[in-house]
Specification:
Elements lengths: L8 E5 L4 H11 L3 E6 L19 H6 L4 E4 L7 H10 L3 E4 L5 H4 L4 H4 L7 E6 L14 H7 L19 H24 L4 E5 H8 L1 H6 L20 E5 L5 E5 L3 H11 L14 H6 L1 H12 L4 H11 L2 E4 L3 H5 L2 H5 L3 E4 L6 E4 L22 H7 L4 H9 L4
Parallel strand pairs: 1-2, 1-4, 2-3, 4-5, 5-6
Antiparallel strand pairs: 7-8, 8-9, 10-11
Helix pairs in contact: 1-7, 7-8, 10-13
């Protein structure tokens, strides 16, 4: 059955995570994504590590279901190849260095007169204007600039997120904005420019701490893996050396927790702890009581007790635990994806429908589709050989 974006062609001048994460999801909805990569080295994320049978974990994650076209964008012949490609394209996504696309004549303003239906999505660290426009931006730098680090970590030291959260935020806003632009084009017949800033995407995700610190108020304190303002809400050790995450949201749950989980019903009305504000102020004292109560329980017994009491909880899982997660297995969320190193496990994307399953095609080798794409654009074998000899492809 036809997928939602069947017939849509996306040209991706992309590297790292934000743009590739966006375009992978477009590909899974059926779009044809032509990923343009530098000959010889390709997307530099290919070389981040060798954790997936010699391939990069980041690259395998964000680049399945795409076609790889090896093309040196700085070569004099590249412009004509791109021009032919864009004649067939619906969307151009780029996250090149600031200003690079415009210098190559690939800005929306330059392309729109020739390709009025083309949607151009520019992803950058700080946006198309302003004093930070030309500043280099990587995920950890944006985590820092957006204030994320100021509220993440322990009281003694900030900590970054364990995944590329700023890149993911930008990629998701690019993805959703492109979908909206395609719907709009269905009404107007015209493409548009989308300007995605990693900083703005990340600051949007910082809405709670921003408003908590509204009008020069104190920001939420760094609280490690615990909630900054609700207590108890965080990880607690168990007698078998593991940890269980639990969270209380209201006073009714606090009373149940004291009675059914701790076995200390009188604690619920203890004036040190009888409101969230008081529990939050007396964290150290209350934590000692909870840890002592949990010391005689292993993680499974504690989870069972929390479940019986209706208290929200979660295991503090490792990556190995997640690979083997029973809920993912029960919902049949794992599939396989081909790679240059052979098939590997892959998680099906969230939000899929049985009526149009996502496309999960191979992670391409560098330049795997160059010949086929150039042939489709009208270049013959002699022309391709000349480009190859000249280092253009």
């Amino acid at each position: 059955m036809a997928r939602p974006l069947e017939g849509i062609t996306v040209v991706a001048l992309e590297h790292a995570i934000a743009a590739p994460f966006c375009t992978r999801q477009l590909a899974e909805l059926g779009a044809r994504v032509v990923k343009v990569e530098r000959p010889g080295t390709g997307d530099f994320a290919r070389a981040y590590d060798q954790r997936v049978r010699g391939l990069s974990s980041h690259f395998v994650w964000t680049n399945r279901s795409k076609e790889s076209l090896a093309l040196d964008l700085k070569h004099p012949e590249a412009a004509s190849v791109l021009a032919r490609l864009l004649e067939r394209a619906d969307v151009l996504v780029q996250n090149l260095a600031p200003g690079a696309a415009a210098r190559m004549g690939l800005s929306f303003e330059a392309l729109h007169p020739k390709h009025p239906r083309l949607i151009v999505c520019d992803i950058s660290g700080y946006g198309a204007d302003g004093p930070y426009r030309d500043k280099k931006a990587y995920d950890l730098l944006i985590q820092s600039e957006s204030g994320f680090l100021s509220v993440t970590g322990t009281a003694d030291e900030p900590a970054k997120a364990g995944c590329s959260v700023a890149d993911i935020a930008a990629g998701m806003y690019a993805y959703s904005s492109i979908l909206a632009a395609l719907i709009e084009r269905g009404r107007t017949g015209l493409g548009k420019r989308i300007d995605i800033s990693m900083l703005e995407a990340m600051v949007e995700w910082m809405g709670f701490p921003l408003y908590y610190a509204f009008d020069s108020a104190e920001p939420p304190p760094r609280a490690g893996a615990a909630h900054a303002t609700i207590y108890p809400y965080g990880p607690f050790p168990t007698g078998d050396g593991r940890s269980v995450m639990l969270g209380l949201q209201n006073e009714r749950e606090w009373q149940v927790f004291c009675d059914k989980v701790l076995g200390q019903p009188a604690l619920a009305s203890d004036p040190r702890f009888d409101t969230n504000a008081r529990r939050n102020a007396a964290r150290a004292e209350l934590r000692a009581i909870i840890v002592a109560a949990f010391a005689g329980l292993d993680a499974e017994a504690l989870v069972a007790r929390l479940e019986a009491a209706g208290i929200a909880n979660a295991r503090v899982n490792t990556m190995a635990d997640v690979w083997a997660h029973p809920q993912l297995a029960a919902r049949d969320r794992w599939t396989q994806v081909g790679t240059p190193a052979g098939p590997v496990a892959a998680l099906l994307p969230p939000g899929t429908s049985a009526s149009d399953p996502p496309r999960i095609d191979e992670v391409p080798a560098l330049g795997a589709h160059t010949g086929a794409i150039l042939s489709e654009l009208g270049l013959d074998a002699a022309a391709m050989e000349r480009l190859r000899a000249d280092g253009a492809i």
